[in-house]
Amino acid sequence: MICRQDLILSPEQLAARCDPDSFSFETTKELKKTPIELIGQGQAQEAMEFGLQMKHDGHHIFLAGPGGTGRTTFARLKTEQAAVKQAAPADIVYIHNFDFPSTPAFIEFPAGEGNLFAAHLEEMMNEIKEEINKALTGDSFEQQKMNMAQIQENELHDKWQELEKRALDQQFALDKKQQGVVAVPLTKEGVPHSEESFQELDETTKQKIMEKSKILTKDVNATLRQQQIMRRSIKKKWQDAEELMVGRAVYGPIEEMIEAYTGVPKAVAYIENIRSEIIKKWKTLFHEKDEKNRGDIPVIFSVNVLVSHKKEQGAPVIYETYPSYANLFGKVDQKPVLPSLETDFSMLTGGALHRANGGFLILEAAELLSHPYSWQALKQMLRSGLLRMEALADEAAGVSRSLLKPEPLPVNMKVILIGTASLFDYLFQTDEVFRKLFRVKVEFETSMDRTFRHIEEYAAFIAYICRRNQLLHVHKQALAKIIDYSTRLVNDKRKLSARFHLIAELLMEADYWARKDEAAFIKAEHIKRARNEKQSRTNQMEKLMQDAIDEGTIMISTDGKAVGQINALVVSKRGELSFGLPTRVSARTYVGRNGIVNIDRESFLTGPIHTKGLHILSGYLQAEFAQDDPLPLAASITFEQSYNMVDGDSASSTELYALLSSLAQIPLRQDIAVTGSVNQFGDVQPIGGVNEKIEGFYAVCKRRGLSGTHGVIIPKLNSRNLMLRNEIIEAVEKGLFHIWAVSSIKEGMEILTGVPGGERTADGLYEKQSVYGMVQQRITAMVNKMKKIDRK
C-alpha cells in the first residue's frame, strides 16, 4: 500500500515541457537575421548604459557574473553601441624632442590625420634634401665660392710678395717649409749663409743680421696670423653663404607645411625646430661624403604614428586578452650598438591603453590580476589621469632599463573589467583604490524567467548561433528539447539558463550527429543523442559506482524494512558531470548523556555545514522531547561506507528519520530514498541537485527491477526544481515509481513507516500509536532508567 498518496507528485509536476507547436515556424532557418542582444539581462543593460554614459571620475565598470553567460559578448556589444555615437579620438604621433632628446614629445592630430602628417613630412624632407643638394652643388654657387677663394689668395700673394721684397732688400730670403716660414740671411753673392760662412763674419755684422732676423720673423708671424684670419673669414663667408642658400632652399617647403598645419600649434613648433636644425647641421645631416648614407633622411626628421584612428568609426573599443605590462602600456624597443644598447622615439610601440584612449578598454579581471605590475600601473594611471610609457627589464621586478621617458599622455577612457561576483567582492573588501575607481557594478544574471517572450528570443539566439557557426538549423521539436535542457541547467521550471556557451556547445554536438545522419536539420533525436553521448564520455565514475552497488560491494537495500537504517541521496561531481547516488545512513540509540555522536565528524570526514545540520537536528529533538526532563540520549549516526569528506545539510532530515526510527523501534522502508534538510521546527527545507538525486536512485531501482513501490521523498519546496528525464516521468505515469513532496518530518515518517506521525493530546503527550508517541515512550523509559542509575 502506498502511504500518503496526497503527497505524491503527478507526472505533470515532474518537469516543464515546451510544446513544439507553440512555435510559428518549422525550423530556425525561417527566423529573420536580426542582431542578437543578450537575453534576460535587463537590469544589467540598464546598469551598463549608466556606467558607459557616466563621465565623472571613478565610474569605471566591473561586470560581475559567472563565465559562459555571454559577459564578454555583452560588454563588447554595449561598448560598441556607445562608441559609434562618439567622435573618434585624436591620432597620437611621437616626435624627436630637439631640446630634450631623452623625452620624446607627442602631437595630437584629428582622427585620420596622423599618418597624413607623417606622409607630408616625408615629402617635405625629400623636397628639402633635393633643394639643398641642387642649391649647393650648382655651378653658380661653386663659382661664387671659387671667386671668393681667388680674391683671398690674390690678397695673400700680394702680402707675401711685399714681405719677400722687403726681406731681400735686407739680404734675407724667406724659406717656406712645412714647419713654417723662416727668414734666412744671404751672402753678398745672394746665396744663403752656411754655418761656416756665418761664423767667419765679425761680431758686429752677426749682431746686425740677428736683429734684422728678429724683425723679419715678427713680420712673418704677423703675416701668418693674417693668413689664418683671412682663411677663417673666407670659411665663415662660405658658411654664411651656404646657410643662406639652405635657408632659401627650405623656406618654400617649410612655409607650405606650416600653413597646412596652423591649426596644430605643436606641429608648427616642431616644423620650426626642423628648420633651425637643418640650417645649423645641414652638412652632417644631408651632405655625407659616404654615398651609401647620402639618400637617407635622418630619423629625427620623421615621426612615430603611435595611434591612428578612422574618423568615421567613432570611439575605439579594445578587448585585450593578455594584459601584460607591455601589451597594455606599450614598450620602448632597443637595438644593440656595441658596446651598449640604443633607443630613440621611433622605437616606441603603443599598447592597448594608447589604442583605447578616447574610448573603451575591456579586460578580464582575473587575467589582469595575474599580472600584478599591470594592475598596479593601471590603477595609478586612472588616478593620475596620465598614461606613461617605460621599458621594463623585468615585469615582476618593475625595473626600468630605458633612458627614454616619453611625454605622458592625458587619459580619457572607460575601463570595463569582467569577472566573477566573488572576485568583485574580494577586490571591494581589500582594495581601497579599486573601490574609488570602479564604482559601477553590472551584475549578470545566471537565469531568466521562462516566459514566451524569452523563449522566442532564445529561438532567435539559436538561429544566430547556427548561422554564425555554419551549423544546420534546428527543427522546432529539437528547439523545444533545447528549451527544456536550458531549464534543467538552472533546476527551476520557471527559469531559463543564461549560460549560453552550454547551449552553443549542445548545438555544435547535435550538428555533428545530424550530419552523420545526413539530416537536413537538427532534430529532437540529435539533441537527445548529443546529451547522451556527452554523458557517456564523462560518466565512468558513475558507472563504477553503479556497478559496485549492483555487485553488493556498496550495500544499498531497495526492498524490505529496517530499524535505524535509511537510504540518503548524495550528489557527486566529477568534472562537468554531476550524478546522484544512494548511500546508507544508519543510527543507533541507547541510554546515556553523550548526545548524538556523528561518527563521520569524529573521524574528521565532515565539513562545518554538515556539523551545523547535526546541531539543528539535536535542537529539534530536545525541543520536542525534553521539555520536562533532560534528554538522556546517546546516539551514533553515520554514512555507511563513506570514506570521503561529507559536507552540506541536505541529509539532515534523513539522519533525523533514522534516529526517530531507532528511538521508536519502527522499521523504515528501504524501497524509498530521502533527501532534504531540516530546521529546528521540523520543517523540511529545499536542497540542491534534486534531479540528479532522484535519477540516481531510480537508476539503481531500475537495474534491480521496479516493483511499483520504489520512490523518493523530496522537500515540497523543491517541486519547482524538478526537470526529470522522460523515462522517469513515464515510470511515474505507470505507477512504477513515486515522488513524494513533504513539508515536515512527520509527513516523511508517515510515508517511511506507514504509521501516523502523531499529534499531542490534552495532556501534552503524543498519541501512543503514533511515531512520535512511540519515540516519547522510549525516551520516558530512558529517563526512568537514567534516574535509577543516578540513585545508585
Automatic annotation (TrEMBL):
It comes from the Bacteria. It catalyses: Hydrolysis of proteins in presence of ATP. Belongs to the peptidase S16 family. The keyword Hydrolase applies. Keywords: Hydrolase, Protease, Serine protease. InterPro entries: AAA_32, Lon-like_helical, Lon_proteolytic, Lon_Prtase, LonB_AAA-LID, P-loop_NTPase, Ribosomal_Su5_D2-typ_SF, Ribsml_uS5_D2-typ_fold_subgr. GO terms for molecular function: ATP binding; ATP-dependent peptidase activity; serine-type endopeptidase activity. The keyword Transport does not apply. The active site is at residues 650, 693. Its EC number is 3.4.21.53. It comes from Sinobaca qinghaiensis. This is endopeptidase La. One of its GO terms (biological process) is protein catabolic process. Pfam families: AAA_32, Lon_C, LonB_AAA-LID, LonC_helical. Residues 560-755 form the Lon proteolytic domain. It is an enzyme of class 3 (hydrolase).
